[in-house]
Amino acid sequence: MSENKIRNEIHVFINGAEHRISGEKAFLPLAQYLRYHSSLPGTKVVCAEGDCGACTVLSAKLENNTWSEFQAINSCIAPMYLFDMGSLVTVEGLSEQENLSEVQNKMREFHGGQCGYCTPGMVCSLSSLAEKSACSGKAITEKKARNFLTGNLCRCTGYEPILAAATNLDLSKWKSLSDKYLTDSQKNQFRPLASDSLMIEAGAKKFTAPANFQVATEQKSKSPQTRLVAGATDLGVLHNKGKAFMDDVMSLHKITDTNEIKMTADGVWVGARVTLTALENFLEDKLPELSRLLRIFASPQIKNQATLVGNVMNGSPIGDSIPALLALDAEVHLQSTKGLRKVALPKFYKAYKVFDVTADEIATGILIPVPGPEWKSKFFKVSLRKDLDISAVTFAALLKVDGNTISDARIAMGGVGPTVVRLSEIESAMKGQAFSEDTFARMGEKVRTLIKPISDLRATDEYRLKVAENLFKKCHIELQQEMTACP
Fold first, then answer.
1. Where do the FAD-binding PCMH-type domain residues begin and end (predicted)?
2. Residue 149 shares a structural domain with residue 45
3. 332/413 Cα distance (integer angstroms)
4. Which of 43, 241, 469, 487 is 20 to 30 A from 362, alpha carbon to alpha carbon?
């Protein structure tokens, strides 16, 4: 890493004040740094898993000399080092010269305040909604308020007062957080730091953020045990619970190409650092069924940090995005000092947590082909709650229908074995069959003989078998309705 300037501290603004953080403090979860080293105890920690939302704060980042918008994130699972060249706003930073913000006033006026643990995070989530709505000029509906609050679980006072506070916000009174905290002065302070690499060490802990892929692959080749971390929405939980530790990690957030999402001749290119929120918005008119699935992937706080590549490389057998990506024939791009390697996702998963990736390779992104209009798609997630829950079973179907005949099929499922699987036997059996209720019912019966789900805390094996069968019927019903409704 000698070719680049190497910093051993991160630079971040918190409520407008610059912080330079190095050593052990850089490895703390953001919430702990705020509470114990910044005298900002308004941010609470309850679950330490990114589930309850009590730790919600607002985050913006400087990328390509442009500030992103402020978004709500969970501060309990995100390590401090991920916020280099960023700007953070906590509940203490929302007020204006000791006057409450419009969100805080409305929560008070409509009696939406919870206990002292959950109110600050809820106020931050609603502030994210107010900031976005004021910028777009769009009114706040109850549905939009519910969506922005899905990551804040506590409802001590009931839903109605909170929703009333949200829908009665006077956006003309909202003081823009971007205008207040994302200034040219801050940008000028950060600009000389943009090309720096980062290396922070504290005892046995080591964090690096290379400035380009060449440096990153060279470092990974020398230290294959180093783990890649993106949003830390999964690794952060494991770290907090003592099941896996982020003591030797690398982030790609200094490499601007990793934030790129674009349409190419071969499909949608999704860089390694593209968040699920950004992807959901980008795919709305390109792969609308995948965009719809991402809406219920997780809470806004999680999706604003989590990445598609992180979900794929984590390789959970219940990973929400993976069945859809398998059915779409997506491919993951892996870079090492030996060059670029492309692996079709259906061949990537070998066994439980065993992937076609070598220790010295770095995932740079994923290419998602966009099927033509002759293909019909349905992606399902089944969980105990609609929002903010881990899946029991996931399902993806991509079908080419000619007239009333299925000429081609791609089917994938998760939660039914040690890995997400492409069901090649089902695909072969569906080809040439009528697009009918009977065909899908028979395929549902057949799938029960091919999958081997287990019983765990989320569902029994028999439940998963029945759900898998029923999802084929659901797929036919919804596609039939859509095809009938088409002019």
1. 199-373
2. no
3. 19
4. 241
> What H or E segment, with its residue span, contains residue 200?
strand 197-202
The 8-class DSSP code of residue 79 comes to B
Instruction: Report the Cα–Cα distance between both ends of the chain, in Å, rounded.
Output: 59
Task: State whether 169 and 298 are in the same domain.
Answer: no
Checking 171-176 for CB contacts under 8 A at 24+ apart, the result is: 171/102, 171/130, 171/133, 171/134, 171/140, 173/102, 174/101, 174/102, 174/103, 174/130, 174/131, 174/134, 175/96, 175/101, 175/102, 176/131, 176/134, 176/135
Whether pLDDT at 486 is above 70: no
For 12, the token pair is 């971040």
Looking up tokens 């809470």 gives 299
Instruction: DSSP for 117-163, please give it.
Output: TTHHHHHHHHHHHHHHHHHHT----HHHHHHHTTT----TT-HHHHH
Q: Strand 248-250 to strand 227-228: parallel, antiparallel, or no bridges (unpaired)?
A: parallel
Q: Is the pTM of this model over 0.70?
A: yes
**Distance between CA atoms of residues 157 and 326, nearest Å:** 43
Q: Are 252 and 273 in contact (CB under 8 A)?
A: yes
* Structural domain of 208: 6-93+181-250
Question: CA–CA distance from 129 to each of 70, 126, 207, 279 (Å)?
Answer: 10, 5, 33, 19
Helices (H), 307-420: 308-314, 322-327
Element (H, E) at 371: none
DSSP state, 99? B
CA distances from 108 to 43, 114, 164, 166, 301 (A): 18, 10, 11, 11, 23
Tokens 């990445």, residue located: 307
Helix (H, G, I), strand (E, B) or coil at 350: strand
- Per-residue pLDDT at 2: 39
